[in-house]
Specification:
alpha+beta; binds coenzyme A
Amino acid sequence: MTIGPTIRKPDAEDGVAVHRLIAACPPLDTNSLYCNLLQCTHFADSCAVAESEGAVVGFLSGYRLPHAPDTLFVWQVAVGETARGTGVAGQMLMHILRRPENAGVRCVHTTITRTNASSWAFFRKFAKNLDAQCAEEKYFDQDMHLAGGHASEFLLKIGPFEPVAAV
Ligand SMILES: CC(C)(COP(=O)(O)OP(=O)(O)OC[C@H]1O[C@@H](n2cnc3c(N)ncnc32)[C@H](O)[C@@H]1OP(=O)(O)O)[C@@H](O)C(=O)NCCC(=O)NCCS
């Protein structure tokens, strides 16, 4: 029997492994190690790691919007190549939503470039599983906001959905 990875909150000791995982998961942008450390500590309640045999094989970073805390904004999702296709990304997102401290979350937002087919498929399937509506709009424009060097990012809004957390 294959045992899947353990999903848990990150902590500071995960920072370096998270940083390396994201670097190994194109087309994700890398951020500084310091940024990943802040995600793993200050934002641990809204982030998750997937760990298999002592190695970090998945990371999902997110935060609740400061002006709308019923919305979880998913910043990045990374699953190492060998762990893909087994539901790890979905398990990390559900782990965050099931936490009692996130009981107030009713919507998930994220931004995706047009060509990231796996990301669109992942989030649309997630919405379907929750029987939630989806809406999208251009959010960060390639020329206006991203200095022409990065494709436009489209905001995908999922929800509202029934609370997932068991309180
Ligand atoms: C996108 C990514 C996070 C998916 O991770 P994963 O653990 O393999 O995803 P899951 O197994 O939870 O997939 C759930 C659903 O997403 C969709 N999906 C995931 N990967 C897909 C792919 N390569 N092509 C099409 N659909 C895909 C499928 O609908 C899948 O459900 P199914 O297997 O029942 O068909 C992973 O491929 C990855 O890290 N990619 C590189 C980084 C990236 O683009 N991240 C997303 C941007 S934030």
